[in-house]
């Protein structure tokens, strides 16, 4: 990761905040709503979702298409200009699905929680090789 958008540095700098209710401490979550694309490693088609929250160690996102825990995934978060500093900026991650969060009611959406294992900021169409 050679370049980090200045406006996104706060996520990395406060990520290791202590939360006494978790042992070990849980990374601080931020309720940020961003479009997300994700797919299982090796798949060619991307699935769509929207983030519920994000930290430096993981992301939870709303989606209609669920995956099993331990599935290795690729995730692309499209940053708005206000955060990324330019159009077309993305955070591209490799991760693992930790859990499925089922909806509390019939009109709610399920979500997936994923651990981020590797990430980088990219511009335009640049992506990880699958």
Q: Could you describe the 3D structure shown?
A:
With 130 residues, the protein is mainly beta. It has a single domain (6-123), classed as Thrombin, subunit H (Beta Barrel). The chain is built from 2 helices and 6 strands, in the order αββββαββ. It has helices spanning 9-13, 81-84; strands at residues 35-40, 47-54, 58-62, 72-78, 89-101, 111-123. A 6-stranded antiparallel beta barrel has the order 1-2-3-6-5-4. The protein is globular.
The secondary structure category is mainly beta
Supply the CATH class.
Mainly Beta
Beta-strand content bin: 35-45%
Roughly what is the average pLDDT, rounded to an integer? Answer: 78
What would the principal axes of the Cα set say about the shape?
A: globular
Low-confidence residue ranges: 1-8, 10-23
Radius of gyration: 15 Å
- Tell me the number of helical segments per DSSP (H or I, 4 or more residues long): 2
**CATH architectural type:** Beta Barrel
Give the distance, in angstroms, between the N- and C-terminal Cα atoms.
18 Å
Q: Please, what is the CATH homologous superfamily?
A: predicted glycosyltransferase like domains
- Domains, number: 1
């Amino acid at each position: 990761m050679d370049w980090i958008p200045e406006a996104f540095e706060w996520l990395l700098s406060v990520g290791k905040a202590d939360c006494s209710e978790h042992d070990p401490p849980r990374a601080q979550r931020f309720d940020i709503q961003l479009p997300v694309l994700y797919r299982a490693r090796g798949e060619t088609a991307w699935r769509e979702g929207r983030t519920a929250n994000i930290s430096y160690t993981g992301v939870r996102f709303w989606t209609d298409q669920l995956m099993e825990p331990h599935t290795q995934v690729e995730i692309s978060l499209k940053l708005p200009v206000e955060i990324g500093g330019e159009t077309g900026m993305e955070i591209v991650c490799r991760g693992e699905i930790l859990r499925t969060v089922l909806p509390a009611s019939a009109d709610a959406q399920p979500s997936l929680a994923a651990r981020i294992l590797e990430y980088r900021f990219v511009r335009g169409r640049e992506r990880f090789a699958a």
